[in-house]
């Protein structure tokens, strides 16, 4: 199974938010993950709609993990973000093998096994103490006057 780029970035953003219990702007998350701010803003809104983050506007605002998010399985997050689709779409355009093909069932079973494996991992497991040093370096506040993006190779 291949995750969309948006789901990948959403998982990374959740990990960054979970590494430090503090509000961050979508722009800060975008800079740290090296993606366009508009793209990260859309991802944050999707995460908010699904109850994984809370957002607040204005001074002191930003994005923070929702209270329930750390106990959410990665499998559940992927299901919510990726939707109910299958690995292959045998209906559009209609596949001439649909009636007697066993591939769709095999791929569906593989997808279910993939997600079941991810169900064993909670978001808190990805950022548990001590978090990986690279995650902490991305999650740490940038020193005054320092560039907002991490240096290449860190």
UniProtKB/TrEMBL annotation:
<dbReference type="InterPro" id="IPR036388">
    <property type="entry name" value="WH-like_DNA-bd_sf"/>
</dbReference>
<keyword id="KW-0238">DNA-binding</keyword>
<dbReference type="InterPro" id="IPR036390">
    <property type="entry name" value="WH_DNA-bd_sf"/>
</dbReference>
<protein>
    <submittedName>
        <fullName>Rrf2 family transcriptional regulator</fullName>
    </submittedName>
</protein>
<dbReference type="Pfam" id="PF02082">
    <property type="entry name" value="Rrf2"/>
</dbReference>
<feature type="compositionally biased region" description="Low complexity">
    <location>
        <begin position="134"/>
        <end position="148"/>
    </location>
</feature>
<dbReference type="InterPro" id="IPR030489">
    <property type="entry name" value="TR_Rrf2-type_CS"/>
</dbReference>
<dbReference type="InterPro" id="IPR000944">
    <property type="entry name" value="Tscrpt_reg_Rrf2"/>
</dbReference>
<feature type="region of interest" description="Disordered">
    <location>
        <begin position="134"/>
        <end position="154"/>
    </location>
</feature>
């Amino acid at each position: 199974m291949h995750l969309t780029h948006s789901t990948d970035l959403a998982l990374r953003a959740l990990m960054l938010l979970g590494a430090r219990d503090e509000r961050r702007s979508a722009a800060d998350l975008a800079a740290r993950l090296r993606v366009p701010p508009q793209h990260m803003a859309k991802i944050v809104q999707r995460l908010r709609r699904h109850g994984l983050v809370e957002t607040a506007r204005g001074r002191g605002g930003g994005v923070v993990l929702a209270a329930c998010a750390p106990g959410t399985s990665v499998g559940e997050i992927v299901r919510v973000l990726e939707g109910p689709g299958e690995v292959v779409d045998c209906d559009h355009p209609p596949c001439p093998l649909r009636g007697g093909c066993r591939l769709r069932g095999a791929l569906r079973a593989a997808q279910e096994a993939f997600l079941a494996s991810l169900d064993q991992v909670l978001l808190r497991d990805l950022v548990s103490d001590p978090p990986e040093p690279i995650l902490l370096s991305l999650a740490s506040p940038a020193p005054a006057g320092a560039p907002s993006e991490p240096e290449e190779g860190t």
